[in-house]
Amino acid sequence: MTSTGDRTWGWLGSTEEFGRPPEPNEFIVIPKSEIHCEKYAGSNHAAHCFIYAENNERVFDIYNPRASILMQLRYDGYFGFPGGLIDAGEDFVSAVNREMVEEINLNTTIHSVNHDDHIISHWSEKKNLVLHFYKLKVNMTDLIEIERQASLARDYGTEVLGTIRVPLYTLGDHYRGFPVFLNHNFIGCSRDQLIAALTSLNILTPEEIQLALNANSRNI
Ligand SMILES: O=c1[nH]cnc2c1ncn2[C@@H]1O[C@H](COP(=O)(O)OP(=O)(O)O)[C@@H](O)[C@H]1O
Ligand SMILES: [Mn+2]
Ligand SMILES: [Mn+2]
Ligand SMILES: [Mn+2]
């Protein structure tokens, strides 16, 4: 019987530790002013992107989505954002733009991330990994085209198993919708990145985010 490859790492072994579920508070926020300093020069770096469009077109004429935000189901079963590891000597922004071409076939002649689009960076000393997070704001017409193009990406069907939108509304039991979504498994610090972006871009109020986080326990 030929090997299915299951329950092995193969060549992925060299980076499998990066994808291990983080311990509580493993990732700490580092100031944007420090992300290029010597302290992190020996670390592994990755950069991911929060692609979003304002969207107030109500779902079922009831729920205001407020924004359409793209995330993806990854090959490892976790939700995450498009992006990836920065190659040796590669500029952070060049890397995230490269990864978005690879993973969602983004036309970077039309839409590309620049240094000013930095949202937040996190560092895991344990993993020797620094995770940078950038935003890319588009309009809904462009977001729909980006979604259409994503299935033609080089990594679609391998690294990326699907592009999704994040449900930001909460249903009548105060649980279904965004709170349920926050209960899914996220890679790296991507849940923290989602919350940081929603807050810093004023997409949801801190109170709405806290309500969604508190509703996780189904004690509504
Ligand atoms: O969306 C994300 N936000 C934060 N960290 C992430 C995200 N996606 C992956 N990571 C972390 O960064 C590492 C490298 O990212 P990724 O798996 O996307 O690299 P690749 O696309 O170059 O293969 C992952 O192992 C994981 O720890
Ligand atoms: Mn990569
Ligand atoms: Mn990739
Ligand atoms: Mn990736």
Automatic annotation (TrEMBL):
<keyword id="KW-0546">Nucleotide metabolism</keyword>
<dbReference type="GO" id="GO:0030515">
    <property type="term" value="F:snoRNA binding"/>
</dbReference>
<keyword id="KW-0378">Hydrolase</keyword>
<dbReference type="Pfam" id="PF22327">
    <property type="entry name" value="Nudt16-like"/>
</dbReference>
<comment type="similarity">
    <text>Belongs to the Nudix hydrolase family. NUDT16 subfamily.</text>
</comment>
<dbReference type="GO" id="GO:0016077">
    <property type="term" value="P:sno(s)RNA catabolic process"/>
</dbReference>
<keyword id="KW-0694">RNA-binding</keyword>
<dbReference type="GO" id="GO:0005730">
    <property type="term" value="C:nucleolus"/>
</dbReference>
<dbReference type="GO" id="GO:0006402">
    <property type="term" value="P:mRNA catabolic process"/>
</dbReference>
<keyword id="KW-0539">Nucleus</keyword>
<dbReference type="GO" id="GO:1990174">
    <property type="term" value="F:phosphodiesterase decapping endonuclease activity"/>
</dbReference>
<protein>
    <recommendedName>
        <fullName>U8 snoRNA-decapping enzyme</fullName>
        <ecNumber>3.6.1.64</ecNumber>
    </recommendedName>
</protein>
<dbReference type="GO" id="GO:1990003">
    <property type="term" value="F:IDP phosphatase activity"/>
</dbReference>
<dbReference type="GO" id="GO:0005654">
    <property type="term" value="C:nucleoplasm"/>
</dbReference>
<dbReference type="InterPro" id="IPR054754">
    <property type="entry name" value="NudT16"/>
</dbReference>
<dbReference type="GO" id="GO:0140933">
    <property type="term" value="F:5'-(N(7)-methylguanosine 5'-triphospho)-[mRNA] hydrolase activity"/>
</dbReference>
<feature type="domain" description="Nudix hydrolase">
    <location>
        <begin position="42"/>
        <end position="188"/>
    </location>
</feature>
<dbReference type="InterPro" id="IPR000086">
    <property type="entry name" value="NUDIX_hydrolase_dom"/>
</dbReference>
<dbReference type="InterPro" id="IPR020084">
    <property type="entry name" value="NUDIX_hydrolase_CS"/>
</dbReference>
<dbReference type="GO" id="GO:0009117">
    <property type="term" value="P:nucleotide metabolic process"/>
</dbReference>
<dbReference type="InterPro" id="IPR015797">
    <property type="entry name" value="NUDIX_hydrolase-like_dom_sf"/>
</dbReference>
